[in-house]
Structures are given as C-alpha cells and as structure tokens.
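In the lab's daily routine, each protein ends up as an entry in a very long ledger. A line of letters takes care of the sequence, but it says nothing directly about the fold. The fold becomes a row of whole numbers, each drawn from a learned catalogue of backbone shapes. The protein below has been through that process, and both of its lines are reproduced in full:
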Amino acid sequence: MTGISHQQAKKWIFAALDDLLRPDEAARLEAHLRECAACRELAAAHRALDSRLKSDLRLQPGELPAIATRIQQQGRKIAMFNRFSAGARLSASVILTVFLTLLMSAFFAKMRERAAPAASATQPPRGEILFVRQLSAGQTALASVQVNRPGVETLLTSAENASDYSPIWSPDGQKIFFVRKQNGNSDIWVMSASGAQPTALTNTPGDESIVGLSPDGAKIAYLSGEDINRAGLTVMNADGSDKRQLSDTHQSFASWSPDSRQIAYFGDDGLILLQADGSNTKILLENRFVEQVRWLDARFLVGIVTQAGENPTWTLYRFDSQSAAREELAVSSTPITDWFWDGKRLIHLVKSYNSLAWYESGGQMLNTWHNFAEKCQQYPRDMYIGAPNLWRAPDGLRALASVTCGEGTTWLYLVNADGTQIAPLLNAPLDTWPNGGGISAAWSPDGRLLALIPLTGENSSQFYLLNVAQALADPSTPPQLLSSENSLRFDPVWQPAP
C-alpha cells in the first residue's frame, strides 16, 4: 500500500512546516492531500497560521504562574474525666487496664488497615505491555513484555510474509485485536492474550483498519474499502459476525459513546451520530473540518473544529447527542489542541508558537506555560500533550507532555487539567530522531506507571518503564530499562486491569 493514513498525514503536515520531510515523504503527503479534502483544509489552515506566526510573533520572556499552596491544620482535644469512689479504686484500675488494652489493640489494627494501601503503592509493578516489533524491513509482529520480568520479550505473532500492527486489548484483557497485512491486503484478526488461536474476523480483497472497540468490548468499528484512505465505516460483533456498513464514504475517525450504544464519526458527510446498528442518524456538523471529538459523558460530545482560510480559526463545540444541538464554547485564532474535564469545568488548551495556555470555556485564562521549549538547543520540532489519547492518564486529570527538540532530544513533563502543575519527569532528555521522532507512550491502568519507547529513526529502540510518583519526587532518577533487544518497537498498549 503506497498511501498513508489520515493520522500519518496529520503528523507529516506539521513536519512539513519545518521542512523535516524527506522528498519521498513529501511526495506521498502531496498525493494524499490531492485525494483528501479534509486534510487539505487542515494543511491550509496550519500553513496560514505558521506564516502569520513567523512574520508577526515576537516572544517575550515570561514567568510560570505562581502555584499557591494551602496548608490545613487539624487539632483534636480529648478530655477524659473519671470519678471513682474511695471504695472502688481497685476495681476501677482493673477495668481501666482492660479498657486500655482493648483500645490499643483497636488502634494498632486500624493503623495496619491504613498502612495496607501505602504498602500496595510500593509493591513491584505488574502487568503486560503489548507492542509492535519490527522483525525485518517491511515486516512487523506483535510482542509483549511483563513489567515484573524486564528483559524478557515474548513474540506473539510471526506469520510468514505478514505484518501485524494496530493492537487493541479487549476490556477484560483476555483477547487482542489487530490488523494483519498479508498477500497485498489487510484484515482484522483476533487472538488470545497468549497469542494462541489467531482468527481472521474479516476476509475481503480490500483493506481493513481498526477504528475502535466499543467500551463493553462487544463490537468493533473499522474502515473497509479498496483504498483505506477512502474507506467507509463498518461495525461488526467482536466475533466477526453481523457486519453492518454505516457509511460508504471516506471517514477520518470515530468515537464510541460510553454506553456502547452510539458512535460518532467524521468524514465527507460531516460529523455524524448514529446508533451502533446504523439507525437514528443525526448530522451534528457539516462543511467544517473536525480535528477531534470525544464524549464528555453519556449525552454530550466535545469537538475541536477548524475553519481554513487566510485567517484560520479553531472552535470548541459541545454537541448534544439527544437533540443534535451544538454550543460554541470557545474560538481561537491559534490552535486549540485538547481539553480536560475536571469534574466542574471544561478546560481547553491553546498552543501559540512556543507557549501553552489553559482556558475556561468562558474565556478566562487559568495558567500559561511560557517557552515550553526553553531547554531545546535547536528550533523545536513540536510539543505534544494528551495526543494521542493514550497519553492522558486514566483519571483524565493529568497528561504526559513531550517537547521534541531539533537536535534530536525529547523532554518529558507531567501537566494537570488546569495547568497548576507543570513538572519535569526527567532531568535529562531522551534521545529521539530529529526528523520526526518523539515518544510512543502508554499509561498503566492504575495511572502509576508509564511505558516509554523513544523513536530514534534507527533499526532499534529502547523500552523504558517510568514510575510517575518517583519521577516527580526525584527527576534525576533514570527510568527502568524494560528491554534493550536489538529491534525497533512502537505503539505500546497496556493490558487492562483484571
């Protein structure tokens, strides 16, 4: 397949702004843009923005916002008054001794209960991480590593003349869904967590690509067509039965509702919402490019929409899945890159050249990260936060942010929902490829650990495990090396907690 995916096109659009594409990559991107109107809009918007920023923007030195600390103190006073008659002093002493003994026993039992969670926080990490591993030029397979057995990789697939990629765990962690490209076309497969019983779920002369597994694990949304870049959206049961084509036009992405009953997708027809069986179709937005959309809760979706032109804009919308109504939450002349929900407020992030700002939907700025690339020695390639969504912590309130520098290094930070925490995870950068490198990352289900694979552009890559709490307490602590076998790895996916 000579085409590129929409996700790859989006990455190359940004790389092209800094002349970081090889000639063959630039040619493939241009070919993709000729066929994809939505991607052309995105490219035009970012080219206009880049031109305006480079000509008009003048950076001013700034300071990180002060982080207020709150100190709470609690006091407890206990007054005990005992009155005993002179004739009952001995009996009272015995009773008091028994009472104190029981009280102390209860106290130490309670202390042991409180200590249990703390002990579990320091117990050795457990779990399995799935990833894609290159076997040879043009051939990839799926492998895994146990975090409590560093250095031991297990090869799960190795089909002849085939490449396996795009792995997804089932919610119970017992099955793995993936794409296998063999004999000129790609299909969707499933196997057990151990790699046993690999089974093809599709078998067509065209190409298939996984879009997403429903939260309950019962259905798979995928793209299917002769050209994967022009493929329509189809849904099937997790066992491959009951295939239903929801759209026969080009699609960019899809997002399942939390209850697995609805699916929203963006493509040539606009932003569409419908039931998983294809019924009750609603048009949420037309004639605009939707960069991303995610479900806020069981009813509302939040999306970032781009309007191309000489003065491009980025708009944050909230869509009502019941009425199909939309509400404009924020408009910016610089990219709105992501959003958080902290339980009370919808907070969005705006990236302006070399800084990042957090805003409430009403327009109030909460915090700013000035000059996020201050540690770079050469012109920074880009800064990523919360994208892809695997970089967002399971609690939804924190995200991994990476700053990739032109000299071929990547710095890692942890940021929270409102920007009051911007903390380095490592005092030293990880070595990455200057021409399009960065980090492949995945959070553990409990949010304690990060799996990190620096992308170097070489034929091999290191595989690290980072304890987030330890890194925040002491960023000079190096990450644990999970595997250093001489192979290229990418796309780590953590097995869901049982």
Helices lie at 6-17, 23-35, 37-56, 89-122, 468-473.
